[in-house]
Amino acid sequence: QTNTSIFITVETPRGPSAPSCDPDSALQVEATLEVPDRLIITANCSRTSQSLAGPDKLRWEMALREDFIADGSRTERTGSTGVVVVIKKLIVHRWDRLLWDEAEASISKDWKREDRDLPDADEVELPKAHNILRVSFEGLRKTASNQIVVAALRYTWCTVCEEKDKAFVKATKVVGSKAGFESFVFAVADLREDKRLARMVAAEKMHECHKRCPLHVFKPDEPLDEPYKVEMQLLYEMDEYSMMTDPMAGAPGHTPKGQTAKPNFERFERDLKRLVPPALTHLRDADGLVQFVKSSDNVVLGSGVDATQFRRTARGLRGVAAFGLLDDLGLLPPQPPSGGRDVGEPVVELRAAEATQARAHLRFEGEVKPLASEELDHFVRVHVQPLAQNYSWDLKDKLEVIGLPVAVLWVNRSDMNNTNTTMRALEAFNLLCDRRRGTNVSRNVLCCIQDESYSYYQREYGSHEPYPYPFLGLTKKLGFGDGDRFGYPFKEPVNQSVHTFFKSPKRAAKQMGEWTQRVLSGRVPPSHESGAMPEQPRWIRSHVQDVIWKTYQKEINGSTADTLLELYDSQRKKSHIAEATMRILAATLKDYSNLKVARMETSSNYVPHIFGRKQFSKDTEYYWVPPSIQSGEWTPEPPVRYTGNEPVTTEKLLRFFKKWTLSHWSLKEAIEVASDLEQEVMGQANYNQRQDDRAEQEKQEMIQNMMKTLKKEKGLVDVGEMMGLKKAADTLGDADKTKTGKGDKGRRPPSKPAAAPGRSDPLSRPSKENQNQVSPEQAKKNEEEKRKARRLQLQQEEAKLREMEKRDKEKRKQRREADKQRKELKKAKEAEVRAQKAKEQERKRKKREEERALRPTTPLFAWAQSNERVLVSISVASLDKEKVNLTILDDGLAFTGRDARNRSFILSFELREFVVPSNSSWSIRYTEEPKPKPNGVTVSLHKATAHRWDRLAQNHSAVKLFMRKDWVQDDGDLEAEKEDIELPSGRNLKKVTAKSLEKLSSANVMVMVAIRYPWCDKCDDKDKHFVKAARTSNDKDHLGSVVFAVMDAREEKHFAR
């Protein structure tokens, strides 16, 4: 086996031939595959190819271990009697055995074809507990007939669900012991050991081993093959110390050491409780209808609809609305005043708790019989929502499921000074929401209200601090940073203009509705983050223009002037010098009306992607933005970035600007003017920059001193310093212990200085008392003992030095090995990255080749001819004969087709001469293999004029790369016609085409034309007299207004016909 296929070699039974076969015959085997898991083998006589009958009949039917697919599975004969069976696995993984019951056949492993690199499948133990039942398909069906079963359906070789299965075991013990869950049975099933159960849930692709790992809930009142699915949600916890000491905490894919996971018991309990009531309740009388409506907030009532379709729709709306089916068709009368439905007609009605009075009993206007389930699902989800609701994280997910655009109104409920404006804005917003309530994505919206705690969301809608209230926006997704945003274009300053705008709620609702319709129809561009409006938004010469995103399109992208644009961050370094450089540039270019200097701050403004600027970048970048052709139109070319060396100076920017600008101005004069301004302007800028740098340095020193004081007095710890010094502390730990051990013995007294090199150590001079008391022999003996002790001490110190040197050498060796391992690891990682990159490039290359291979192309074709017919043979390998379309016109041929890979082939050209379509034909061409395959089309064209064509296509150059002459089919006896016959020519004789003849005849009284075929030589004598008549016509008065002309009939075939 490989990861995707199984190869089986089937041999004939051992021993002599079957008695029912001829003596000269031998047994041969035939293999048949039956989806999903059957392998059938029969034995036949080799000559008669008849199955053995009676007691000699040999037939085996075996069940494979797992299912397979027919596409890619096949049988091939090897030799005269054996068969090779190739099986395409349904589930791509390693099989543990071949047959369901291996005792049915004698099986040996073919190690030559075995994939040696195929990894062994991991076996995971299924969830096990005293309250978890192990079930099969039959056991599940029996248990689910009278109880609710929550089952974990798993493959034992899938390991991604191990953590959630452990949580499932815990949840069954906690939730299963609560009141109300007595009727629940928790179970587990092995899908590999129970094929019927695996096939029932095959559509969910559980074999792909995805991380969702759902639990299936089977109910007695619903079909077994329509289970519900709930997920086991996990809650991850992490203590503060682990979070502080782990620098990778929070990184994607990283699991901290102190992190633990536990089941979300509340969510699991809530999901199961939601499934307890029946999906569809049958209501038999009016009393039952009243009780049912009172029992739920949102109710969907159906009358005369298909119960199965209605129940399936109700399954997807559990927790949203309760569904009831009325047995009496007259319980839901026609709605006044329309009365569009008669009593007894199918009807679906929604009664929502949050609906307005006009929508209290809302009828579903979609298709009811048969029931449009998706439309009804969307209809219910939309109309159970309140007109406007406060934003929350759960609301975000709920509205994203519905899929309608969302109108958002920001209000500041804590601002008591503007309460009247807030109330009028809410009134206008409710009017807008009421008018725009519906299910059409291009016309209707849902509504949401956000208070001042979500004010920073306004940045994406083009607003800025101080954030205005009230403020209106429209979005496709509510989350921060998701989807396109559209902010209502209030007049600046917005904080003041909104009070006037919402003075009349009806007028405000009308204007907001018109703007909403423009947004939904795609006539309003998306909004982006934009800074506060500058004090001087319009450009003034000699000044640097401050630009925000709201003014960028008009002042930069739509300007007719060459623009030098600076993109900078407000926290950049050396800001005074950069500002002075731009002021000098603006003052230098003040005499040129078509040269503009502008700048835009990037931290509070959206930067278009065309600039390629990284988000949160602190770099200062300069661009030349080309001028627009006309004021208000966008610039025709992308901007060009300055890529010169640092530091950026005025002269460098002027040279860059001169290189790209389309206007005419003097660079030399500009540099001279800039140099005159630089001394004063840059001097002041440098002084201001030094002041700021000094203040920043003092601030940092003050912060450091404050931190030192807090550490000493309060005992606080610098977390960053602690994490940075931890490794150094661990490294020095052993050295500190050694030092502490030596200190316990006390300090060693200082030794005397050693003698100079080459001399012996000086002897210590005894005191006078010792000189008087010690004899010379004793003194000599004492000196000898001192020397001996000194030599012993030196030997010990030398041994100690050797030992220290040995340890240092060992440490250096360990460091070298560690460095070597780090380098090898780094090289391995780099090689792995390069391999992955190369693999990705190869994948992209193959994908491009596959896409290129599937592009429409022109097929190769050959042609031959006889005196009356033209044969065209179009070649397409592996042609799909069901997708061939060939059209024969009297002057053209058109072919379209596709091959087995679904690649499109198109051939269409104009014929050299006319043919007769009614006498022409075409047919599919097949290969000459034992099993013929279609590989092209053969076309037979009947010539309108029986003679030899000089070429097939009128425009020969367009198809000559794909065309060749078929000399095998060509009539070799067909004589070549004389092609060099000259058409009549001479003085006063014009060569015309059909178009020029039309103009010529409209301008003259008479035009006489000789229309000739160049291969026809029967008119030579008459053409000579025609040339003579044209030459002498000017000499005769009555022929002065007659024009003589000649036309090539083959080149102008339509006119000639």
Characteristic terms for this protein:
1057 residues; alpha/beta; five-stranded mixed beta sheet
Please tell me about this protein's structure.
By secondary structure, this protein is α/β, with parallel strands linked by helices. Strands 7-9-8-10-11 form a five-stranded mixed β-sheet, sandwiched between helices. A five-stranded mixed β-sheet has the order 14-16-15-17-18. Strands 19-21-20-22-23 form a five-stranded mixed β-sheet, covered by helices on one side. Strand 5 and strand 6 form a beta hairpin. Helix 7 packs across helix 8, helix 10 crosses helix 12 and helix 14 runs antiparallel to helix 16. The radius of gyration is 47 Å and the shape is extended. The two termini are 70 Å apart. About 3% of the residues have low confidence.
In short:
By secondary structure, this protein is α/β, with parallel strands linked by helices. The protein is built from 24 helices and 39 strands.
Task: Give me the secondary-structure topology.
Elements: E1 5-10, E2 27-34, E3 38-45, E4 59-63, E5 68-78, E6 82-89, E7 132-134, H1 137-144, E8 148-154, H2 162-176, E9 184-190, H3 195-200, E10 215-218, E11 228-230, E12 234-238, H4 240-245, E13 259-263, H5 265-274, E14 280-283, H6 286-295, E15 299-303, H7 307-316, E16 322-326, E17 347-351, E18 362-363, H8 373-383, E19 389-390, H9 393-402, E20 406-410, H10 419-435, E21 446-450, E22 471-475, E23 485-487, H11 494-501, H12 505-520, E24 545-547, H13 549-557, E25 562-568, H14 575-588, E26 595-601, E27 621-625, E28 640-641, H15 650-660, H16 667-714, H17 719-731, H18 733-743, H19 768-773, H20 776-853, E29 860-865, E30 869-875, E31 885-888, E32 892-898, E33 904-910, E34 921-926, E35 934-942, H21 956-959, E36 963-965, E37 989-991, H22 994-1003, E38 1006-1012, H23 1020-1032, E39 1042-1048, H24 1053-1056
Parallel strand pairs: 7-9, 8-9, 14-16, 15-16, 19-21, 20-21, 24-26, 25-26, 29-36, 37-39, 38-39
Antiparallel strand pairs: 1-6, 2-3, 3-4, 5-6, 8-10, 10-11, 12-13, 15-17, 17-18, 20-22, 22-23, 25-27, 27-28, 29-30, 30-35, 31-32, 32-33, 34-35
Helix pairs in contact: 7-8, 10-12, 14-16, 15-16
